[in-house]
Amino acid sequence: VVMFFERRPEGLDEDETFQPRQVIVTTDPMQLTLGNMASRDLFRPAASVEERIRLVAPFATLGQKLCDQPAGARVGHGEL
Length: 80
Description:
Blueprint: E1 2-5, E2 22-25, H1 29-35, H2 49-67
Antiparallel strand pairs: 1-2
Helix pairs in contact: 1-2
C-alpha cells in the first residue's frame, strides 16, 4: 500500500489554507475502493460497488507496477 498526497500549488500564499487530497494505491481493488472512500472526488460517481471496483482497477495495476520496482528505485512522473 502506497499513499500519495497532492502538492501545495506554487502560487498559493503561505497564509492560505491548503488541504491536500490523498490517494491510496494498492494491488487490491477492494482496498482501493474502501481506502479511498473519504476522497470521493478522486473518481467519477459509481452506481454500485462493482462499478467502483472496475473504475479503480487501473490503480491496482499501478500498485503492482510499483511493487515490481527494485528496492530503493526512484520512479519519476510518467515512468510507469
